[in-house]
Amino acid sequence: MDPLRFMLDQSQIPTHWYNVVADMPHPPAPTLGPDNKPVPLEKMAAIFPMALLEQEISSERWIPIPEPVREIYRLWRPTPLIRAKRLEDMLGTPARIYYKNEGVSSAGSHKPNTAVAQAYYNREAGICRLTTETGAGQWGSSIAFAGQMFGIEVRIFMVKVSYLQKPFRRSMMRTWGAEVIASPSTLTQTGRDFLAKDPENPGSLGIAISEAVEEAASRADTNYALGSVLNHVALHQTVIGLEAKKQFELAGDWPDVVFAPCGGGSSFAGAAFPFFADNAAGGHKGKQVRLVAVEPASCPTLTKGTYAYDYGDASGFTPIMKMYTLGHDFMPPGIHAGGLRYHGDSPLVSQLYHEGLIEAIAVPQLATFEAGVMFARAEGIIPAPESNHAIRAAIDEALLCKASGEAKTIFVNLTGHGHFDMAAYDRYFDGELEDHVYAEDAIRTSLQHLPKVG
Amino acid sequence: MDPLRFMLDQSQIPTHWYNVVADMPHPPAPTLGPDNKPVPLEKMAAIFPMALLEQEISSERWIPIPEPVREIYRLWRPTPLIRAKRLEDMLGTPARIYYKNEGVSSAGSHKPNTAVAQAYYNREAGICRLTTETGAGQWGSSIAFAGQMFGIEVRIFMVKVSYLQKPFRRSMMRTWGAEVIASPSTLTQTGRDFLAKDPENPGSLGIAISEAVEEAASRADTNYALGSVLNHVALHQTVIGLEAKKQFELAGDWPDVVFAPCGGGSSFAGAAFPFFADNAAGGHKGKQVRLVAVEPASCPTLTKGTYAYDYGDASGFTPIMKMYTLGHDFMPPGIHAGGLRYHGDSPLVSQLYHEGLIEAIAVPQLATFEAGVMFARAEGIIPAPESNHAIRAAIDEALLCKASGEAKTIFVNLTGHGHFDMAAYDRYFDGELEDHVYAEDAIRTSLQHLPKVG
Questions:
Q1: A168 touches chain B (CB under 8 A)
Q2: Where are the beta strands (DSSP E) in A216-356?
Q3: Which of A2, B20, B180, B321 would give a disulfide with B273, using CB separation of 3.0 to 4.6 Å?
């Protein structure tokens, strides 16, 4: 029997994160304040610890992972790289499909990779309380877990539609000692304003971010933690790709193409950036690896958005960042991949996409669930709806290989399990899920509200 | 950093199951039919494939694991053995606590170890349909998964109280293509009889077994699969302990005591029997390992039951087996460890207990959830309520070590994760869970209904 699972020893947990900025052809566009000038670090220090802000602007290629962070990583890392042999057989493809199972983490997704680092740096800075937002609940449960690891209190604003769809994600956060609030809430001015306009507002990641930032900015003992988008978050996720590269060496194989779901961009960054390092250096043994961000057709930030300065949140509370955006007040449909319902995208991912160094595709909801069920029936793992986006893309690529006879190697970032998403699977089986039409008009309207720059 | 996780290569998945019968001081008491004579295999062949029946009565020490079964095991096995260092630190104990994480399996528990084997042998026998029962849903989702792996249709009678408490376990079974029926149901005579007596009957494992057996016995294309109790089930689970022994060698350590939850007995058998082999041979390096079955105080089969012949199901449909029992019509309270709500116990476990070769303790529900939350906060994994029983016992042992200063090595069978049990955790946090009083009167009554033998 060929080996199907490629494991690393705990001593092989990366000692450094990889910073893609060192290998980008151009420096990242700066984050700007209301005055259209780069935001000074000191200003951001109201809600972030200095160590994370330094990572945010660093151009060092390698940034050391503190030992206490690696110590917590050891609870689940290194994660396995698994060859999806049964899925290949089911598809009848000559392609080889591998997935990195980030669902084995404590909170069931890749999110703890950065949550643990953020909790650590905040504790080191003497902060004893964090606020954050969560969509599908993957980030919320991750920061709840990470806070528990370092003795930090956590308050989580959870997008209301997910709060209602996923009560057990709340229970999970509670098990790790965090407090969970449905957003929009009455606890912040932002929340009250949105509720005044529409008491039935289902919430969005953008609104929840506004609420969490507003509270963190108003309390000295409290900082804010973001689960995606920012450079330091993308940085922390690179443990995924760094481990995967060692594991592909073990497997005696190497990806032709990497697929990762893309909402705020950090799971894509985590899987893809370490392979980008090789691309930038001329390729792995001279071969360029295709790096493909997979987003929902209903929230098609990279594929249908504009590359422009925009706010990170819905109400214009944050500084503005240059990124692909659908407009900060774009309200995505209530699809079940809550983690991908974000109007913007990581500025690093956006810049690489803008420069043609990575690719992006958008896939419709029903096709992603079909792919997830196929994967579950072949591999025994029920994936998170977010992960189903990457799996869909991988299956499509494998089917192209079947048609062409090419034996490509496909790498999928399986970002999480779907144990808290079974209601969505039920709706899929019951024929109640739909493909949302690409909201061209809504996006055109929201793009008219971009902030003016320069 | 000391290693915390002890992994085996996939080539080290056991090639044989260990059959404890070979090392028991006395042969197992035979299973008897209505005539009080040992049931001929041919009769059992109405609902089980011959290969499993041969395992049921075998006294061979080692039974080969078919390659197609090992092939499926590879989707998640070998499972990790993990040192619970953070839990040790939280308790301040000199004890070393290790757990075998069976929750990494496809269905999230140890149950697929036998489900896969059973589905395989049934397919080899030309069977294309299986019925079974499930309590907490761990077994049901495992057989759904296993059926999917071998192209077998599966119908699952799910104890109604769990069916209602755990809708997402149903969704999981559905994802793997199985059909799930709340038991008692109107599909069988047994179900109709129970509903006639009490339309609100919350169900029990015993009733659900009766329903599944009744249906399997009445259809030629359909066999029955049992998730615990029987000898062949205990046999298949020994991959747990066999792997653990290799992993303890890697760790340079060896358990002084093994704790496993005990409902029908198979997870205990799986973890403990391979260590019993050493005990029977004079001990590991001369040392006997304590083997402790941990059961719920509300369903205390080993600690408060009687060692006698009884039916495996609630309505007297099955042959009778010599085992510890609370009486086949004992209705355990609706505790959240649904997998431990069984009136009887594995005949092999029962006989070893009766002969004083293993130990048993009973723990109350609230204490098990307290232990589970401590474990989640220390180790990042939210355990199944069943597993919390073993964790409770391990914590108590570790606290005894703290008092005595002994540095014992404790091995816990972490049989599953609690992702589908968050409603139970919520009830615990909300103060709504209770400790059921030991139902002395109810047990005394049900014990009066034991079948007459010989």
A1: yes
A2: 222-224, 257-261, 290-296, 306-311, 320-325
A3: B20
Looking at chain B from residue 172 to 191, which residues have their Cβ under 8 Å from any Cβ of chain A? 172, 174-177
In angstroms, rounded to a whole number, what is the distance separating the alpha carbons of residues B12 and B19?
Answer: 19
Kindly report whether the peptide bond that precedes residue B78 is cis, defined as omega within 30 degrees of 0: yes
How is chain A split into domains, by residue range?
A: 5-10+77-108+237-447, 17-65+111-231
pLDDT tens track for B332-345: 887 888 788 889 99
Pairing of strands B153-159, A16-18: unpaired
For strands B179-183 and B153-159, give the pairing: parallel
Q: Are B38 and B325 in contact (CB under 8 A)?
A: no
Regions of chain B short of the pLDDT cut 50: none
What's the pLDDT score for residue A74? 95
A172 touches A138 (CB < 8 A): no
Considering only CB atoms, which chain A residues are within 8 Å of B15?
none
Residue B421 structure tokens: 């049990």
| Residues 6+ away with beta carbon under 8 Å from A431 | none
d(CA B300, CA A18): 54
CATH class of A17-65+111-231: alpha beta
pLDDT in tens, A180-191: 999 999 999 999
Contact A74 B4 (CB under 8 A): yes
Do the Cβ atoms of B134 and B144 come closer than 8 Å?
no
Q: pLDDT digit string (tens) for A255-268? A: 999 999 999 999 99
Report the 10 Å Cβ neighbour count for A124.
14
Q: Tell me if the domain spanning A5-10+77-108+237-447 has CATH number 3.40.50.1100.
A: yes
> What top-level class would CATH report for the domain B76-108+238-447?
alpha beta
Q: How far does CA A305 lie from the centroid of its chain?
A: 18
Q: Which residue shows structure tokens 């358990």?
A: B255
What one-character-per-residue DSSP string does A376-393 give? Answer: HHHHS--B-HHHHHHHHH
Distance CA A255, CA A248 (A): 8
Rounded Cα distance, A212 and B226, in Å: 50
Chain B stretch 111-140, residues whose beta carbon is closer than 8 A to a beta carbon of chain A: 112
The answer to whether the A5-10+77-108+237-447 and A17-65+111-231 domains have the same CATH topology is yes
The token duo for A141 is 């449960």
Contacts of A3 in chain B (CB under 8 A): 9-11
Gap between the Cα atoms of A119 and A149, Å rounded: 8
Instruction: Kindly give the residue spans of alpha helices, DSSP state H, lying in B151-265.
Output: 160-165, 167-175, 189-197, 205-217, 231-237, 239-251
Least Cα separation, residue B338 to chain A (angstroms): 18
**Interface contact A20, partner B, CB < 8 A:** no
> Model ipTM?
0.94
Q: Which two tokens stand for residue B335?
A: 């505790």
CB-based contact A171 B70, cutoff 8 Å: no
**3-state SS, residue B391:** helix
